[in-house]
């Protein structure tokens, strides 16, 4: 095996892991600042200039707090739950193309951990596994509120994964590929998929809110009904892992939406820019554009949380089964008819 290949992949994985943790950490700061802005408050402003060190203070507090395991809990599963949630959240970044290839010492270095030809299926597999961390943690806590939260999370994820999968089928009919790198390559310049699949994007985005347990679909963590939900009995960094996993899931969901529907690292007039700079600089500009799109989606996640009230559970399930799934099926039929007509003429 080529040692340079191993070093490149190890470096990319390490950088992506660090970026995921930093973004998750400072998403907690951004969440509180966005909430403060929408509620005409200041938000964190004590730890460092403008409260910029608040996430570090919160992380230190998490590490220093006493770790408590309930006496009646299933000890090993209680510890496995947060780790599994964190693992499934992080591995979703492996198939996302973060930019065009860099040229280092005459070698083309792709800014993607792996370009598998079933990248979309891989993402859905990771998403479906993530709920196991919540289910195991809720059940192992031996707490009725945590157990009810785990049941809610499982049924919510199953319901909205169906609509999410159907919304993607219409996109795959257009692109004829499951590779995320090829899907991004087809959106060169302004040819973003959201222009051709607006309904599919809306369905996918709504399902992303439900899959990440974000408001107004945060029924598994509903404080007014379930105290804290599946992590009621957790403390110290086990609780921190669950909270970090939620924000990393939000980051990955934003990256997936930007990749599938908003061109990924593509942007208007990118060929003109590339003609005036070196290939590596052009690739890094594309990566910067992708992260701008991701941060815009993260802001939207936060804006919705502090704007729209939480759904009732029956409203949540009705929206998934009676509205989103029929709309997704209709979108597949319409897309198929349009493609057939275009190919015929």
Automatic annotation (TrEMBL):
It catalyses: a quinone + NADH + 5 H(+)(in) = a quinol + NAD(+) + 4 H(+)(out). It comes from the Bacteria. Signal peptide: none annotated. Pfam families: NADHdh. PROSITE patterns: COMPLEX1_ND1_1, COMPLEX1_ND1_2. InterPro entries: NADH_UbQ_OxRdtase_su1/FPO, NADH_UbQ_OxRdtase_su1_CS. Its EC number is 7.1.1.-. It is a multi-pass membrane protein. NDH-1 is composed of 14 different subunits. Subunits NuoA, H, J, K, L, M, N constitute the membrane sector of the complex. PANTHER family: NADH DEHYDROGENASE SUBUNIT 1 (PTHR11432), NADH-UBIQUINONE OXIDOREDUCTASE CHAIN 1 (PTHR11432:SF3). Belongs to the complex I subunit 1 family. This is NADH-quinone oxidoreductase subunit H. The gene is nuoH.
